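Standup, Tuesday
Yesterday: got the pipeline producing C-alpha cells again.
Today: sanity-check two examples.
Blockers: none.

Example 1:
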Amino acid sequence: VKTPSQLLDLYVSSVGRNAGLLLNVPPNRTGLLSDGDVASLKAFGAMRSAWFAENAAASAFVRHGPGEVVLTLTKTARFDTVVIREEIERGQVIEAFTIETDDGSGWKPLAQGKTIGAKRIARVNYVIAARVRIRMQSALGRPSLADVGLYLEHA
C-alpha cells in the first residue's frame, strides 16, 4: 500500500510530466479494493485537492510577448508549485522553457525544463513574487500556453 505522500509524488512525476497516472491498485480476493488502499487513495485525493485549491495566478494580468508570457499578480503571492499547460489542441511544440520571478528587484530564474505538453508541475523553492514570467527558449512551432497556476503545497 502506497502512502498518500507517495501517491502525491507519483502524481507529480507522472501527470506533472505530461503522462498518465497508473495507480496499480488491484482488487483483493473478494474483488474489492482493500481498506488500506481505499484510505490511502482518499487521503491522497484530499491532499491533492487542498494543494491545488487556491491558484495565486487566477486573477493575474497576463501579457503575451514573443516567446514569453508574463503574469502580473494582483497582490504579491507565496508559492512553491508552478503548473503550466500548453494549448495541446495546437500540438505540443515547446521544447525548452524557463520560469522566472520578480519580487521588485528584477527577474530571477526559478526553474527550467524541457517539454510542457498537457501539464507540467514544477515543484520549486518557496518564493514570494509579484510577477512570474515563462520564457519559451525553444519550440517546434508557435508556442501557446493554455494556463499557468501558482500554488502553495506547504502552507
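Example 2:
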Amino acid sequence: SASQILTYVMALVIVALIFVLGFRFISSSLEKQRQIEIIDFVNGVTNTIKAVSGDFGTVDIDEFKVPTDYSEVCFVDLLQTNYGDLQQKYPFVYDEIKSKTQNNLFLIGTGYPYSKNAGSVSIEEPPHYECIKSFQNRFTIRFEGVKSGVKVGNK
C-alpha cells in the first residue's frame, strides 16, 4: 500500500502544480488585457485630440472602454497655473502637474494611477481641469476644437 500512497501523493502534487501554473497564467493574461485596454484608451483619446485640434468648432463625442479598476479620467490644461481644488480632490494629479511631467491625462481609481500626455488640451474656464466618471467601464468624452487646442468634457 506504500505504492498507493506514493501514487496519491504524486497525483496531488501534479494537481497542485497544474492549479498554481494555471492561476499564474490566468493572472498574467488578465494583466496583459488590462494593459492593452489602457493603451487602447490612451491611443484613442490622443488620436481624437490630434484629429480635432486646430479644427475650430469641430465636435466629436467618443466612447472608450477602460479597465474596471479606473473610475475617472481627468484632463488638465497645462498652460494654466491655478487649478482650484485639484490638490484636495486629486492629489496624484496635482503632484504630477507640479513636478512638470507634461502629463495632462490621468486615469484614477482603485488601480495604480496612470498618466500620459494626450496632446493639446485646453480648458480655459476655472478650475482648468475636467474629470469624467466612467459608466460601466466606459468613458463618454466630448472633444471640441478651440483656438488653443481641444476642449474636453462630458458628453
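Quick observation on example 2: The two ends are 72 Å apart (CA to CA). The first helix runs from residue 2 to 52.
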